[in-house]
Amino acid sequence: MPLIIMCGYPCSGKTRRAEELKLYFEQNTDRKVHIVGDSSLAAEKNAVYADSQKEKQVRAALKAEVERKVSKDDIVILDSLNYIKGYRYELFCLVKHAQTPHCLVYCLTSDDVSLAWNNSRDAEEQYTQDILNALILRFEAPDSRNRWDSPLFNILQDDTTPFEAIADALFKRKAPPPNQSTQNQPLSSANFLYELDKTTQDVLTAIFNAQKTSVPGDRIPVPGTTEKIEFTRSVNMAELRKFRRQFISYSKMHPTENTGQISNMFVQYLNKSLH
């Protein structure tokens, strides 16, 4: 049901607070509590945060795991840095779509405290000095004036976790109402899904085959469309399928009566996404 988003510097006490919240809700409610965090992905954090692409993949994996676990009955706690404002907004859109409440728990520490707590860890659990400094520098603090950062609970290192206030925010507050961007719309024609699935798969197959004889700079014609793929780099099928899933999700919420335009729209979407 509700989502609790932990937020804070590296080594700011987020995991301890998450475990405290899990224990509190398990003892005081009949709900299951799931903690989703970096540790569950078995990723080496220094390697992840040193590489923007790896970090992006980890964030996407965490978001996908949250989306799988959010349900009518369970509580999900996302135990990660969650330091990027845009990512917190994506999570807010996720809970709007699921029509469930959320809150943000911000563990506030100074740079010096986080550094000291990091140094007190076992060597294999520590952030390197460069990574720790970079993450603190990039940190985008939550602001309760932003609807995606509200309700916001700021917790200093010596504070007691405000269990009851957090419970009230999750169970006594209405879920954010869905809007056009988060609510599934009715399909506009009976065969829309079939045409969407078939057409996008045909486009992927055509692109994948054409790459074998194309070089960067070519404009790849796609059968059934008036558009051409602007071939700037080689793309594997896994990446193409990811873009296809994104386009299908968008198209389900914004269906068109003219199914003949699906292929052109998909090619235009790919051209924007591949650059």
Characterise the protein shown here.
The protein is an alpha/beta fold and 275 residues long. It has 10 helices and 7 strands. The protein has helices at residues 14-28, 45-49, 52-69, 85-98, 111-119, 129-138, 163-171, 192-210, 237-253, 262-273; strands spanning 3-8, 33-37, 75-79, 102-108, 152-156, 219-221, 228-230. The chain is globular and about 65 Å long. Mean pLDDT is 86; it is low at 180-188.
Short characterization:
By secondary structure, this protein is α/β, with parallel strands linked by helices.
Question: What is the topology?
Answer:
Layout: E1 3-8, H1 14-28, E2 33-37, H2 45-49, H3 52-69, E3 75-79, H4 85-98, E4 102-108, H5 111-119, H6 129-138, E5 152-156, H7 163-171, H8 192-210, E6 219-221, E7 228-230, H9 237-253, H10 262-273
Helix pairs in contact: 8-9, 8-10, 9-10
Notable traits:
five-stranded parallel β-sheet; 12% strand; two-stranded antiparallel ribbon; 275 residues
- The overall pLDDT average reads 86
Task: Please work out how many helical segments DSSP would assign.
Answer: 10
Strand content: 5-15%
Element string (H = helix, E = strand): EHEHHEHEHHEHHEEHH
Rg estimate, integer Å: 22 Å
Q: How many E-type strands?
A: 7
Structural class: alpha/beta
The oligomeric status of these chains comes to: single chain
Strand order of the largest sheet: 2-3-1-4-5
Distance between the termini: 37 Å
Estimate the global geometry from the Cα principal axes.
globular
Low-confidence stretches: 180-188
Query: Biggest β-sheet: count, sense, barrel?
Result: 5 strands, parallel
